[in-house]
Amino acid sequence: MELIQSIFWILALWWLLSNVVTAIKVIQIQKAIEKNNELNRNQPKNIELDTKADDPAEVEMVEDKVCGKVIEKSRAYQLFHEGKLFYFCSWDCRQTYIQEYIKQS
């Protein structure tokens, strides 16, 4: 009879501990959800995006002085020489311009 009582108490304790662990997990998940909701509440609701750069009519284009490619000004490599700003499609074109045009003059 004592063996049956011992097994009963072990099962009862196991059931109790498993319920406690489950309750702790549920509480942790609820706290994480509340924290996430709080962070979302603090975000500005009306965020205006800058769409001017995406509009093809608004993008300023420049010509590479070495290869003649037309590229976006914001993505071009630059060189300031003798009061002028030159734009290039790549670092290689910029270096070619320096070697061929600037060093010769």
Report what the structure shows:
- With 105 residues, this protein is α+β, with helices and mostly antiparallel strands.
- It folds into two domains: 1-47; 52-102, Ribosomal Protein L24e, Chain: T (Roll), CATH 2.30.170.
- The protein is 50% helix and 15% strand.
- It contains two helices and four strands.
- The chain has helices at 2-41, 91-102, and strands at 61-63, 70-72, 77-81, 84-88.
- A two-stranded antiparallel ribbon has the order 1-2. A two-stranded antiparallel ribbon has the order 3-4.
- A hairpin with a 6-residue loop joins strand 1 (61-63) and strand 2.
- The longest helix has 40 residues, at 2-41.
- The protein is rod-shaped and about 110 Å long.
What integer value in Å does the Rg equal? 34 Å
The low-confidence runs, each spanning 5 or more residues with pLDDT under 50, are none
Q: Which percent range fits the helix content?
A: 40-55%
Class from secondary-structure proportions: alpha+beta
- How would you write the strand order of the largest sheet? 1-2
Number of helices: 2
Which helices and strands appear, and what pairs or packs with what?
Elements: H1 2-41, E1 61-63, E2 70-72, E3 77-81, E4 84-88, H2 91-102
